[in-house]
Specification:
Layout: E1 2-4, E2 21-23, E3 35-36, H1 37-44, H2 51-59, E4 64-65, E5 68-69, E6 76-77, E7 82-85, E8 90-96, E9 102-106, E10 112-123, E11 127-132, E12 137-140, E13 149-153, E14 158-163, E15 170-173, E16 182-189, E17 198-203, E18 206-211, E19 215-219
Antiparallel strand pairs: 1-2, 3-6, 4-5, 4-7, 7-8, 8-9, 10-11, 10-13, 11-12, 13-14, 15-16, 15-19, 16-17, 17-18
Helix pairs in contact: 1-2
Length: about 230
């Protein structure tokens, strides 16, 4: 299925008035604002001049997303996904630019990915399953809490670090007008209604208030920089 460029999500960093149509991502990881792999290969990384060339590259299995070859040119790519191209010995991570649009940055820590815990469920045998922001599920325990982040090795999905959602934690705002900005949690307000809880984030001396769904922990309160390379 195709989608008009003018109505594409704002996270797409593509020309909107040169051509009428673009590719719509398949159902899968992330939300509706994920970018199809074809656009990443052709428009972002400029590995192909045309959609046909991009589809051929993808179909050959030359592009890995989070360590797994993906041959569907509509495969959805989103925040913090790692795109690896072994033939070129290059790896990239999807982050936000200053306008809240996805952009790939070249990285070296391509064996790591950061995940936000969105909820937990108890499965057969009483085991705890962590449900993560991009649709990934892994086994954990009750020491992990919703809104916390975990750092995992990919593609093994082995947990190597745990980043709690707490005052002072280093975070990225992932939605709204301040998407892509990085700061520290200064306050957390639980709203006693159906409205979302609010988080105050201090960014370079400014205080920004956003909803908790838009706050992604990227470092512990004692960390001076994110635990993964974000190009900052």
């Amino acid at each position: 299925m195709h989608q008009k460029r003018l109505s594409a999500p704002k996270t797409y960093k593509i020309p909107r008035k040169i051509f009428k149509w673009t590719v719509k991502p398949s159902p899968g990881p992330h939300n509706k604002e994920a970018v199809p792999l074809l656009i990443v290969v052709r428009d972002y990384l400029q590995l192909a001049d045309t959609a046909r060339e991009a589809r051929r590259i993808i179909a050959s299995g030359e592009i890995l997303v989070d360590g797994v070859p993906r041959k569907d040119y509509k495969f959805p790519v989103g925040l913090f996904d790692v795109i690896k191209i072994p033939k070129l010995n290059k790896s990239y991570r999807m982050v936000f630019d200053e306008k809240g649009r996805y952009v790939p940055i070249e990285i070296e820590d391509d064996n790591l990915k950061l995940y936000k815990i969105v909820n937990k469920t108890t499965i057969k045998g009483g085991r705890i399953q962590l449900n993560l922001f991009d649709g990934t599920n892994v086994l954990g325990d009750n020491s992990f809490k919703t809104k916390d982040s975990i750092l995992m090795e990919i593609p093994e999905k082995k947990i190597v670090d745990y980043l709690p959602f707490e005052i002072g934690a280093l975070v990225m705002i992932t939605g709204g007008t301040h998407a892509g900005e990085i700061g520290r949690i200064k306050d957390y307000k639980i709203v006693r209604s159906s409205s979302p809880n609010l988080v105050t984030v201090e960014v370079e001396g400014r205080e920004l208030t956003t909803i908790e769904d838009y706050v992604f922990v990227i470092g512990k309160k004692d960390d001076e920089k994110p635990v993964i390379d974000l190009g900052v």
